[in-house]
User: Fold this.
Amino acid sequence: MIKSKRRLMMIKKKEYMIKELDEKSIRMIILSAMVIQTIQGKLGMPRKIVLFKERSIAMASIQSENKSGYYTVPFDGLELWETRNGDLATTLQNQEKKKASAADVAYSKGQVVLSLNEFIIYINALARENQKEAVSIIETALCVVIPFYKRVIIDFKYVKGPGSGVITLISAAVKEDGKRVSGTYQFQYGYMVEGVIEWAEAISLPKNIIVVKGLKTGVIIYFRKRSATSKSGMSKWCEPIFTSLN
Assistant:
């Protein structure tokens, strides 16, 4: 078993090639791997109180009817929200009859706003869980979509290609005391053999990005990395990530 593993590692060392990348290409690959788009929503309520009331009532009605099927897990505050909508509508009617003051209307609106603020938290939670349908989830709820880019530091990432049997591996930069420092990055790839991953060395290098070529296609390939600095020494291997290549 030990001999076969060593033989596999020797073979695999010959299979990969490191493709030289210019600094601009490296930055673009890292940027695309480290930045994830998150779609969220905001309320976008009308300023005019009558339109505000009508929008809030319509929003609550969409939730109670749930014709879209998006809101199967209901908004916990729906019943209270509907009650507050009714109170606002009644207060506006009373204001027209000179039986309610502007302060009464402001109070009733403020109560509805409390429900709306809780509601948008609920909607954004649904959107985060289903980014594929996030725009529809938000807009169906009569809220407004806010697409924005949120920077997420991913410890270990891959980008398939360029080309068949090729993958780009990207490690987060090593830091000490919150500051980026020079380090060495070691990458491995492996295949599952009889229930055990047999790892092959790729290379150790002072850059946190590597392009590995000559990998098998149509099978699951596992990847892992570790890093070292002069101060902290060598880290443990990260949890493997895996994919298949075309």
Observations:
- Residues 44-142 form one domain.
- The chain has six helices and twelve strands.
- The chain has two domains: 2-34+155-244, 44-142.
- The longest strand covers residues 184-193.
